Amino acid sequence: MPTKKRFSLYTAIMVVVANMIGTGVFTSIGFQVAGIKSGSAILLLWLIGGIISFFGAYSYAILGSFYKKNGGEYLFLKSAYSERLGFLSGWISFLLGFAAPIAAACFAFSSYFSGMLHTDPSMKIFGISSVTIYSVCILIIVTLIHSYSHKVSSLFQNVLSSLKIAILLILIIIGLVNSSDTEISFALGDHFMDNVWNKAFVFSLFFVTYSYSGWNAASYIGGEVINPKRNVPLALIIGTGTVSILYILLNFVFLKNIPIDHMVNQLDVGVIYATELLGDIWGRVFGGTIAFLLISSISSMVLAGPRVTNAVAKDFKRLSWFSYENKNGLPIRALWIQAIISIIFVVSSSFESLITMIGFVLNLFTMLTVIGSLRVGLRIKKVSGLINKFVFPWFPIIFLLFQLWILIFGLYSKPIESCIGLLITFIGIPVYSWVKR
User: Fold this and answer.
1) pLDDT in tens for each of the 437 residues of the chain?
2) Are 245 and 43 in contact (CB under 8 A)?
3) What are phi and psi of 121, to 5 degrees?
4) Under a CB-based contact definition with an 8 Å cutoff, are residues 333 and 307 in contact?
5) Strands, E, within 269-359: which ranges?
6) Structural domain for 320, as ranges
7) How many angstroms separate the first and last alpha carbons of the chain?
8) Nearest to 98 by CA among 81, 66, 73, 65
9) Distance (Å, rounded) from C-alpha 135 to C-alpha 130?
């Protein structure tokens, strides 16, 4: 059954926004202020992260304007390089790329949800931890919603993501109009330069990029977006730009209103912020609000991931079972297989182990995809409005240099987890030979 294009530009933008805005922006600043004492240096961190993400989104937009189907990196790498490399990307997406981040987001949701209910996260229900039960329940609910139709999926994603943006804007406005002022400096003097050239600045930048991850989300649903040649690039660029502005403003109001010593090494900076400005009761309410915001992140990944599996399955006869679509054109089998894998991660892994295991290989395939955008961009430069001599090839090249540093840093800081990710990738080579045979 041919896939029906039912996702609007707004839905595609909201998928990008929801993928990007997770717990990272509320948790990472607590570790940044431990080694960086300049407010302007911390804002520079988030500005650099936004610029690099925007350059990556631009590179994917070039490919999205040329290859107008579902699949993301699988489609791009298969088309720009070879079917084998594309399959390896799809293999990683199937096993880790979406299922693991979904499980991690479910873990985070459950932690904040337990805090809202004032229950101990280690509490057992029928011998199973409450965090595990909450994680599995929210995952099943979201998967059921996305199993019905494009209209229901779009409505659910748009409403949650719009509310997420509205809540962040309210928090930013409250912080901007609040008269409290901390001692942190936003000046661009010697203190600023000393902090920028500090090792802590480089280390923090690695984790800021994790907070920006998800900027490529619209490329996974390109085949179901109305007018993909126009709307997929717009969704990537507008979504990434919107989140970058929100992140910089949100960190500014955190620094402006919370004393540094209250934030150092704290994971719940968002709750601390709400407590400082609005009192203890509202601080607890905001903990529940973060749990609510995470549902849109879970939803966007549940929506995007099966499109990669479905695209791979359509190209290989031995995987055709996964390509089945229901009467509404939804990849229903891929959707529920992804849910099962995520549940396995939920009951068998920890938040940290999930994130560190997938980071290296996902960054590697992102880097290869952007190299592919250079190859394709040079080929279509006379027919695409995205190819401009003032930004191409400079945006992709700058992104690649930064991505290379991320890869080296990740391999150095987490060698075991990075090698496990590579090993899982290489296992995909004999799997490719089997499905191709």
Assistant:
1) 444 567 899 999 999 998 888 777 877 888 888 888 888 999 999 999 999 999 999 999 888 888 878 888 898 898 888 999 999 999 998 888 888 888 888 887 887 777 677 666 566 666 677 888 888 999 999 999 999 888 888 899 999 889 889 988 988 998 898 877 677 878 888 888 888 888 888 888 877 887 888 899 888 888 888 888 888 889 999 999 999 999 999 999 999 888 888 888 776 788 788 888 888 777 777 777 877 888 988 999 999 889 899 889 998 988 989 889 888 888 999 999 999 999 988 887 655 555 666 778 888 899 999 999 888 888 776 555 677 777 888 999 999 999 898 888 878 877 887 888 888 889 999 999 998 87
2) no
3) -55, -25
4) no
5) none
6) 9-432
7) 25
8) 73
9) 8
Across the strands, what pairs with 222? Answer: none
CATH number, domain with residue 381: 1.20.1740.10
Residue with tokens 């394709």: 376
Cα separations in angstroms, 259 against 39, 246, 255, 278, 311: 11, 21, 7, 15, 49
What the block records as the tokens of 44 is: 């520079």
Which phi and psi angles does 31 have, rounded to 5°?
-85, -25
Query: Residue 378 has which token pair?
Result: 């040079």
CA 143 to the chain's CA centroid? 18
Identify whether 53 is part of a domain.
Answer: yes
The answer as to whether 3 is a domain residue is: no
How many domains does the chain contain in total?
1
Do the domain assignments include residue 361?
yes
In a domain, 1, yes or no: no
In eight-state DSSP terms, residue 124 is E
Both structure tokens of 18: 């929801």
